[in-house]
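Subject: mismatched residue count in predicted assembly?

I count 722 residues in my input, but I want to confirm that the predicted structure covers every chain. Input:
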Amino acid sequence: MKYIEEFRDQTTGQKLAAVIAQEVQEGREYRFMEFCGGHTHAIFRFGLPDILPTNIRMIHGPGCPVCVLPMSRIDQAIAFAKLPNVTLCCYGDMMRVPGGQRTSLIKAKAEGADVKMVLSPHDALTFAQENPHREVVFFAIGFETTTPPTAVILKQAAQLGLKNFSVSCNHVLTPPALKWLLDSCTSEQGDTPPLDGFVGPSHVSAIIGTKPYEIASRDYGKPVVITGFEPLDVLQAILMLVRQVNAGESKVENEYSRAVTQDGNIKAQKLMHEVFDLRDSFEWRGLGVIPHSALKIRESYATYDAERRYDVPVTAPQENPACQCPAILRGAKEPYDCKLFGKVCTPDNPMGACMVSSEGGCAAAYSYGRKRLKEAS
Amino acid sequence: MKLDLEKGRVDLTHGSGGRAMHDLISNLFAKHFDNPLLAEGNDQAICKIPESYGSNPCLSVSTDSFVISPLFFPGGNIGNLAVHGTVNDVALAGAKPLWLTAGFILEEGFPLVDLTKIVASMAQAAQEADVQIVTGDTKVVPKGKADGLFINTTGVGVVLVDPLPSVRQIEVGDAIIINGPIGDHAVAIMAARENLKFDEELLSDCASLNGLIEAMVQSGTVIHAMRDPTRGGLSATLNEMATSAKVGIHLDEAAIPVRPAVKGVCEILGLDPLNLANEGKLIAFCPQDQAEPLLQAMRAHPLGCEAVVIGHTTDNPHCFVEMKTKLGGVRMVDWLTGDQLPRIC
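Triage response: the counts match. Full output below for your records.
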């Protein structure tokens, strides 16, 4: 596999960091949010805070689909998996996320529920074809990146006339969450210091293109730079954001031109539209209920909708009141500001949204950056 | 999640080599079986036969069970793996493995042709490692009660060195050496399970390391400790060793060897090579001035020809394993709760 090391080159990385250090203005703080969990992960994994100037502060946004999935939906997945004759297929990083009863899919599996980890939705469809006597439910999660593959298997299931396959649709949309963040970060009553710009999503943008982010630059005056998940991409994006801020500009720039175009992947967008419809509202763990921010399966594919096919109770679990995830996701607080962080809330025993996946801001801070906390204490 | 011995149940994380397994072992097995040999916390026990029985050398004893799926994978199968794994655990205390036992749990209906292949490759691996399989046990369980077959092997060897390499001997400033690239075994297994194809075939690194270990020990260089980074990978093994030895560890990412195919799979699936299992790798801790002669001794052996220094121990009071990244930053290398699970994006 080529082009991994090229985007992790130390010499180029240090040159970029030096240019950033040269161009930041003394006495001002640059507060940039990386929307995507993939970027959060890259920032910590490659130790980027160590080579960036101290007045650049990266705020870890809500773009980790595992993190923002509400506990009620995990409870629902567990309930599907416990139904007689049902096999629930899900992505690997969903397995250990605790639901409302502090149980998880991996624990439910130990108690006898049939849970199968898959690497792609297609694996779930194949499993259903190979096991005609099992009822197979695919637990679909993710932003616009993972939505088109779910749309493909729904179409294929319909073409094949599969009777034993359905999808629990939990796909969420990036632009409404971005707008929610912009609203909450700019409200006068808010506790959040203003953001100076966004590092825009990589893979999501390959599907939706660059246009949807114009809302941030045009209506809220915030620069956006769409960039890849490699460390040199992230550094280049930070430099481009610093330059926009210094010049008083706010536009959408595309650093990730090797994968992202202005209009995105039209074919994938059409496919999504054909199979999915907007939900009126959806709960985002840590953010709350956001209108028109998620997808449901269209009426024409209703027979493949697990929510309609099975009657499972809907739970309304309560978050720990001391959990600071909502403030952390808005950039108002750091993981280290939360009383639960690293004590009762750890990747082994996650309490809040930002700790449940390795892409969450708290989990990344804990696993990769705990040293800073100890040094500070 | 916290271990709940009253209401909890065994789940898959308890067998993954990560923190959950460590918790189960320390809170249950080690607590009930408590004795000085077990409390050493090594991968093998060093048993000194009481002098009342005459003056005998110390024995290195270790046991391991093999439940791998698929049973046949590129570069090996459950049979030779069951020999390599136990031979390595016995040998890593600076011992020469001599005898193995083999216990088989067979599932009703298992094809005898496959059993023959597995047993033949066990015999070959034992011959190559110069150990004898001297006793065994066979059980058959009804169909559906086992995944084809499970094998347990126990190994006994004679300790060759004094003082013994042990985590207790690790000192601040020790060099940390590995004998080659990490992650080959885990990726070969994953490829066999998920039907992934590569440009060049990637084989499991599974191998008996006793020949290499004997060469290292006989080179006369001082070796403070050795371990094999199997389940949980380099990160789990180094964290466990740092905690037991009460030292910190500093790694250099650029120095850690990883094959391009392994890197590629890790990128596609969102895995970290540091967490991937190995079956033919060892990590050695030695004083800095012994690193060069030890490397030379290792490189003269076919299984050590890619040996390199990957880091050193530090006086970090929290026993953290840290790594200088390729970009020049420093990050922690944490160990996982359970198996590493592919990330969604």
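Chain A has a mean pLDDT of 92. Marking this ticket as 'not a bug'.
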